[in-house]
Write a structure and sequence with these properties.
This protein is an all-alpha fold. The protein is elongated, with a radius of gyration of 18 Å. It has a single domain, classed as Chorismate mutase (Chorismate Mutase Domain, subunit A). It is 75% helix and 0% strand. One of its GO terms (molecular function) is isochorismate pyruvate lyase activity. Its EC number is 5.4.99.5. Keywords: Isomerase, Lyase, Pyruvate.
């Protein structure tokens, strides 16, 4: 695991927002990369029923809670964010799964 992240001390809301904006740029790039893997999963999986994998969802939720706690973060916040991310990712993967098979069904 990486070193424990530390937020820089800020004296103004402009500083806080500037740091958050910089983090959002990094987070967005990582989310885009993660979504590309969801596209690959939709291509690789042969059954739409396999798109939603509750066991994998619970594994990821527990894993990110543990990592957040180890890093001194808020496990509840991280888990909630990941559950929303996984819900959106599953919906995207279902759409992608169907899109990839549209032409094959014709």
């Amino acid at each position: 695991m990486s070193t424990k992240p530390q937020a820089q001390h800020c004296d103004t809301m402009a500083e806080v927002r500037s740091h958050i904006d910089a983090l959002d740029e990094r987070i967005t790039a990582l989310l885009v990369e993660r979504t590309h893997y969801m596209s690959q999963a939709a291509r690789i999986k042969q059954d739409a029923a396999k798109v939603h994998d509750q066991e994998r969802i619970e594994f990821i939720a527990a894993r990110v809670r543990r990592m957040a706690a180890e890093l001194g973060g808020q496990p509840e916040v991280v888990e909630a964010a990941y559950r929303a991310l996984m819900d959106a990712s599953i919906a995207f993967e279902h759409r992608e799964f169907a899109r990839l098979r549209e032409g094959a069904a014709a």
